[in-house]
Design brief:
By secondary structure, this protein is of the alpha+beta class. It is built from 5 helices and 4 strands, in the order H-E-H-E-H-E-E-H-H. Helix 1 crosses helix 3 and helix 2 packs parallel to helix 4. The longest helix is centred in the N-terminal third of the chain and has 13 residues. The chain is globular, with a radius of gyration of 13 Å.
Length: 107
Amino acid sequence: MAPEVKERIETLINTHKIMVFMKGTKLMPQCGFSNNVVQILNVLGVPFETFDVLSDYDIRQGIKEYSNWPTIPQVYVNGEFLGGSDILIELYQSGQLQETVQVALAS
């Protein structure tokens, strides 16, 4: 990955407490998995930012390499990679996601 792509990814992750790399935007998700993540975060009522990987090929490929995770969406909380749609659903159903998000927003 080019250093400037890595720097752009790190800036996005470190600038926002909850950052979602997804297909589409939070107002118009472009795939079901991205929509799942947006719906979960909306239910929690927490502020989050999104980056539409469809708008930038370098970020779309770079984020997969950065996280060592092959699929989109990817969710970062407090600079740490949480996972994709399936993991977010599991964390939400177990109550762990609410706890993780509250801790992140309080820090």
